[in-house]
Every structure is written in structure tokens, then in C-alpha cells.
Design brief:
globular, 246 residues, mainly alpha
Length: 246
């Protein structure tokens, strides 16, 4: 690695700006590579769904089948996890799944940027979900939602300790949800970059690392899919807790 860190495996996660405006009320509103790939992810999801379902053929083609498969997959996931009452929230959960999935997959492309490797992005998503689910819980149950932190049948002497534990576990949900996604994407892409360096530096003897990197790339694609699924199913679990208080 050079003194300026030009070959650092962590360089791929650096934020760069395409605009250089002055801060507005202390906020940096410049357009970055992170912003660009989030826009590309939204555009990609929109184009995929619109173009795939444009024909609405009775016998679906390849792209329509893929779109319908994703739709059905998330719909069944939400129904099985949170029940029929969660159906009104399906469009939001489906959007979350597709956005995280496309961000993860875009990050696998050469010279791209992995948005979901940044805790600021994943935490913003997780915090939005956490606040939304909490609002749903209070709207549906009112003050009775607070009973979620004190399960029925618990001995009163244990109430202070149990409430504290349950409240802490509830409040760390956005942190655990965001760290899980960011850490997996960060670790995987860092490992890919390290082995790519081995392939280049070893020249003709880099066949072994090259083969391992091919396997690792396939595994990272699987992880990208898996993490989108995990993020979505945990969102559904949290929604289930808000709707059914368990």
C-alpha cells in the first residue's frame, strides 16, 4: 500500500462530491457518489418494475416472471411474518426490499459504490422504519402499546428490571438492523479488494487467488441477496410486534 493510501481496500468506501456548495444551515447538501448510487438504485428499481410489467402478459416472459416472483416472495414473507393486518404496509416493505437489493447489487459492479456499506445510510433507513413502526403501534393500540415492554403475567417485583431490559432491547433495534447490513457489505467488499490486490501483485502466479476471488464474488452476490432478505424480514417482525404486541 502506498503512503497516500491509494491502494487501500477501504478507499472504495470514501465519499466524494461532485458539487461544492456552501453548507446550508450547517448541512452539507452537496451531491456525492453515495447520492448518485442511491438515485441509480431508485431508477433501476423503477425501470425494472415498469418495463417488466408493461406488457402484463397472461403467460409472463422472463422479466415479468422475475418481477412477479419478487412481488410474491415479499408478499408471502409479510403475510407469514406479520399476518393479514400487515397488508396495507406491503408497498413500503416491498420498496425497502427492492431498494436495499439494488443498492447491494449495484455495489458488486466494478468501479461502483456500495451505498449500504455506510452506517449513515443503513441507520437512516433503520431509524425511519423504527419510527414508523412505533407510530403504527401507538396509532393502533394507543397507550396500551406500552404493555409491550411489560408482558402479561410477569411478577410485579421484576417490573422495573424487565421494563428497562425490554426498553433497551427495543431502542437498539435500529442500531442492530443497520450495523448488520453495513458490516456485512463492508467486510465482503474489503475482502474482495484484498484478493484483487493479490491477483495483480502475483502476476502469473495469481491463478489461485483469481479462482478464489471468483468463488468469493459469487458468495458476495449471495450475501447481497441474503442481507436484503434479512433486512426485510426483520422489518416485518418489528411491524408484527407493533400490530400484535408480541
Amino acid at each position: 500500500m502506498s503512503a497516500d493510501g491509494s491502494h487501500s481496500p477501504l478507499q472504495q468506501f470514501e465519499i466524494t462530491y461532485f458539487t461544492h456548495f456552501n453548507d446550508v444551515f450547517g448541512m452539507n447538501l452537496n451531491f456525492s457518489n453515495s447520492s448518485l448510487f442511491m438515485v441509480l438504485a431508485v431508477a433501476g428499481v423503477s425501470a425494472f418494475m415498469i418495463l417488466s410489467m408493461r406488457s402484463r402478459a397472461l403467460v409472463p416472459g422472463r422479466w415479468q416472471s422475475m418481477a412477479e416472483l419478487m412481488y410474491t416472495f415479499v408478499a408471502d414473507l409479510v403475510k407469514d411474518t406479520a399476518g393479514e393486518e400487515a397488508r396495507p404496509y406491503f408497498p413500503f416493505i416491498f420498496s425497502i426490499f427492492m431498494f436495499v437489493l439494488f443498492c447491494n447489487l449495484l455495489g458488486m459492479m466494478p468501479y461502483s459504490f456500495t451505498v449500504t456499506s455506510h452506517i449513515a445510510v443503513t441507520f437512516a433507513l433503520a431509524a425511519f422504519i423504527f419510527i414508523g413502526v412505533t407510530v403504527v403501534g401507538f396509532v393502533k393500540h394507543g397507550a396500551h402499546f406500552l404493555s409491550f415492554f411489560f408482558p402479561q403475567g410477569t411478577p410485579l417485583p421484576l417490573a422495573p428490571l424487565l421494563i428497562l431490559i425490554e426498553l433497551f432491547a427495543y431502542l437498539v433495534r435500529p442500531l442492530s438492523l443497520s450495523v448488520r447490513l453495513a458490516a456485512n457489505m463492508l467486510a465482503g467488499h474489503t475482502m474482495l479488494k484484498v484478493f484483487a490486490g493479490f491477483v495483480v501483485s502475483m502476476g502469473a502466479f495469481g491463478v489461485g487467488p483469481l479462482l478464489f476471488m471468483a468463488v468469493l464474488t459469487g458468495f458476495e452476490i449471495f450475501v447481497a441477496l441474503l442481507q436484503a432478505y434479512v433486512f426485510t424480514i426483520l422489518t416485518s417482525v418489528y411491524l408484527n410486534d407493533a400490530l400484535h404486541l408480541h
